[in-house]
Amino acid sequence: MNPYLPILILMGIGAVLALGGVGASAIIGPKRYNRAKLDAYECGIEPTPHALGGGRLPIKYYLVAMTFIVFDIEVVFLYPWAVDFTTLATFGLVAMFAFLALITVPFVYEWRRGGFDWV
Amino acid sequence: MEITNYVVLACILFAIGATTVLLRRNAIVVFMGVELMLNATNLAFVTFARIHGDLTGQVLAFFVMVVAAAEVVVGLAIIVTIFRTRRSASVDDVNLLHG
Amino acid sequence: MPEITAFEAPEIEWVALAPLLIVLGTGIVGVLVEAFVPARARRLTQIVLTLAALAGALVAVGVLWGMLQDTLTAQPGQEAALNPRVLGGTLFLTPFALGAQGIITILAILGVLVVADRTSTGEDAFAPTAAAVPGTHYEDLAREAGLRQTEIYPLLLFAAGGMMLFASTDDLIVMFIALEVLSLPLYVLCATARRRRLLSQEAAAKYFLLGAFASALFIFGVALIYGFGGMVVRGGNPDAIGVRLLEVSSASRNILSQGGSLPDGTAALYLAGVVLVVVGLLFKVGAVPFHAWTPDVYTGAPTPITGFMAAATKAAAVVALVQVLWRAGFGMAPDVVEQLQLAVVVIAVLTMAVGTVVGAVQTDVKRLLAYSSIAHAGFLVTGVVGFATVVDGGAAVSFVTPPEGQTIVAPDVIRGVLFYLLAYGVATVGAFGVVTLVRERSADGVILGEATDLAAWRGLGRRAPWLTAAFALFLLSMAGIPLTAGFVAKFGVFSAAVAAGYWWLAVLGVLASVVAVAFYVRVIVIMVMTPSNEETAAAAQGVVAVRDAGVPGSGAGLSGSGASGRGSADASAAPAGGAVEPAAPASGAVRTAAPEGGLATATVFGEEHEAKAEAAATDAVVVGSRGPAAVAVALCAAATLVLGLFPSLVLDLAEQATRYVP
């Protein structure tokens, strides 16, 4: 069997899911249109472009994005450790726990300072 | 195919990133240029790792990615601060200090 | 694919890591203090914690110095007290690096003292909350609520820790991480000024964008060096190929010295990588043509942070520059190293020229100190040009394969650079500490931000004699006047340049120093010998009555007022000022009665420049410090004098560092 065949099958399943979902809602769903439903959705704020110089962008989006990046990178470092866990034995365990503890410190800081309140 | 083509690609990406930093006016686009340069570096690291048959380059690419992420956090904070004050992210407008 | 060999836990020399662990660990504790300590107690806790950590780090550096000396002078067979190469070179404690760590710690302590000062106005130099948009109601609310941005103390500790690591590593990727650790807190700290917040945010944005660009250049150079390293480091454990510069250079040197040649094109790869890394470092040093950020960032950042940045960052960056140049040059062919040396020479010349020439026309005190800082970077790079010198019985020879039994060190460079960094750093922190205390006063008596326009500094000598004396001492030290630390420092770097064979560079350096003396002394003349704006304004009103009284030689009156100094001079100054004031717009020639004729042109030029700016400049007001800044300025002044009179205290220590690699 061609080793690329599973990928083709996966692409096919993905296409069926996507097109099937959109098609099913188009065929079976109710058709009540109003202006609000046809707008682009941007997390509840006014969609871009904003009023010239007057539209205020809530700063909480920035906080969420930055928090995500920092802890995503922490996870990025956890992956190689997970792959080679048994080989790295105790030294790796202690080192990674130290790393996790150090990352938890800014987590606690952000928590106490209300950085997570919106989410 | 020559594997050194990837190094050439990394250099081209680096040059494009540097041009972006020097020529664009929007601060966020300038920062995107910096990120492009850092990604070019990652490509170079991984390519050299492949050439040497050594995994160290990939580990170094990890470190560069982490540093790029940290820089993004701080840099975007500064750019957002400027934007909230001035309503514009153009680097040409940042000209109160001159001389 | 390489085999995954069995994992061996590396040996970590925790003792060697002690200063770094103390500083960075306390930074972490500082973040926890931010999270948990109630707001009232936070500031005092942070200050005590920060100063204790830096003092502890200084003690640790001292202890390590002793241990390192024992190790290096130990007889073979004796047990080493300290292994300077931690983790294969990730931390490489040469005496040069340890000395740099000590200098950075000292400068950090002085800088934190200036940062911690809430002057007699009760406000420090930092915004209550840096996140507030300037000019909004939120900002006023924050100020009334008494918020304080105490996160600056852990940020300062992280920056200091990053600087210490930056100066003492052999591994280029660790150097890159340390570069970011030291830079990112500084980018944030530049944006936290209390007054002139727009300038402060702008300074932070410029520093960040240019700094990120330079870091990207640096890391690409590291990638190229990694490419080169993999091609020359052969044998042994293949998993150990990294970017440890000494390892790469030694391997390259082995190939070259055995008469072989490097594979095609790899020498160019190495040179390109080293050049990019050096460019990134020169940005941090503030050398031309990578100096554009310095004036704007130094002017916009809060003054205590500027003092810390100017002193400590430059120390870390210059030390790293010496190390990278030396270690890279170790592995290159001699003609390539000569080209690299030539590039460094050109940069030194340009930097000295730009720093002194453009600095001479500045009217803003912080900008003037920024350009003088660029000039000092030029003098430091002048000291660095000898990085590849082999000392052969006293006379220097160019970088060739050393004769048998000779090691390649750069003793003059190490000694000169260490002393210069200490002298310059102490003078800089002191000077910016003085600038934090000279404030403007609004029309209704409210003390505003720093008075940075030189016109407001006129006659400061009469209002604040001790402060003016300290500032004059720092400026004279920066100018290199004998009996101050700056003179010994300049002598050191210029003799390093001469030892490298570049005597003409030292001559240029002396010329640049002479030009710099002109604009330093101009500031001193403005402070000491010029009547204050109030006196000239008051005297101009009484000019009719006074002129009839027949004032004796106004020059004598001027020098009389300068000499009588403290307090009582108003009566004698007024008549002199009265006679001078009508004549001043026409020609400053009246002031040529000032002692040195050579200064007359500078004074005239300065006066015309200021006369054009504002007819009625207000006087600066000196606010008292609540303790820390005064202590810091006094310590800096004392250090400048002591190092100038007894330089052997530090020079002997630096001598011990010259026997080993930088």
From TrEMBL, chain A:
GO terms for molecular function: oxidoreductase activity. InterPro entries: NADH_UbQ/plastoQ_OxRdtase_su3, NDAH_ubi_oxred_su3_sf. Keywords: Cell membrane, Membrane, NAD, Oxidoreductase, Quinone, Translocase, Transmembrane, Transmembrane helix, Transport. It comes from the Bacteria. It is a multi-pass membrane protein. Its EC number is 7.1.1.-. It catalyses: a quinone + NADH + 5 H(+)(in) = a quinol + NAD(+) + 4 H(+)(out). The keyword Transmembrane helix applies. This is NADH-quinone oxidoreductase subunit. It comes from Myceligenerans indicum.
TrEMBL record, chain B:
The lineage of its organism: Bacteria, Bacillati, Actinomycetota, Actinomycetes, Micrococcales. InterPro entries: NADH_UbQ_OxRdtase_chain4L/K, NUOK/Mnh_C1-like. Keywords: Cell membrane, Membrane, NAD, Oxidoreductase, Quinone, Translocase, Transmembrane, Transmembrane helix, Transport. Its EC number is 7.1.1.-. It is found in: Cell membrane; Membrane. It is an enzyme of class 7 (translocase). It catalyses: a quinone + NADH + 5 H(+)(in) = a quinol + NAD(+) + 4 H(+)(out). This is NADH-quinone oxidoreductase subunit K. NDH-1 shuttles electrons from NADH, via FMN and iron-sulfur (Fe-S) centers, to quinones in the respiratory chain. The immediate electron acceptor for the enzyme in this species is believed to be a menaquinone. Couples the redox reaction to proton translocation (for every two electrons transferred, four hydrogen ions are translocated across the cytoplasmic membrane), and thus conserves the redox energy in a proton gradient.
TrEMBL record, chain C:
InterPro entries: NADH-Q_OxRdtase_suN/2 (IPR010096), ND/Mrp_TM (IPR001750). It holds the Pfam family Proton_antipo_M. Its main location: membrane. The keyword Transmembrane helix applies. The keyword Transmembrane applies. NDH-1 is composed of 14 different subunits. Subunits NuoA, H, J, K, L, M, N constitute the membrane sector of the complex. This is NADH-quinone oxidoreductase subunit N.
